[in-house]
Amino acid sequence: MKKLAAFIVTAAAAVLSAPASAQFAKAEDAIKYRQSAFFVMGQHFGRIGAMANGKAPFDAKAAQESADIVAVMSKLPWEAFGAGTDKGAPTKALPAIWSEQAKYKEHTDKLQAEATKLAAAAKTGNLDNLKASFGATAGTCKACHDAFRSK
Question: Taking a C-beta distance cutoff of 8 angstroms, is the pair 55, 141 a contact?
Fold first, then answer.
């Protein structure tokens, strides 16, 4: 039984460590995956934004839950920008993502860092902390969109 459990853990680790491009059967699958991750992240970020901008009442618990989701989702879409995923399903991704990969990686890393800070700010339950972190995170999103996303 221990050998079977060890085999299962080893097999799972091998599957999870496989190259990201191997996770998607078709470029369209990768595009749909990343668009879905961005959609979910955007929905939760929008909820925080509504609170930060006074368009919705501040709810510390809801802000924290949404910020935690944003932090997790900020880690997901990047693996779906592999070779060949610049074509297929309709996408707003600009070719610069593939031609300027180091610059794009800087943006993705910055978003993940800011999303982590946003989650930490939300945990304080303080609206001013949330507003400051929301602004920084939104600026990171905008900078990446300006450089790598078509209008």
Answer: no
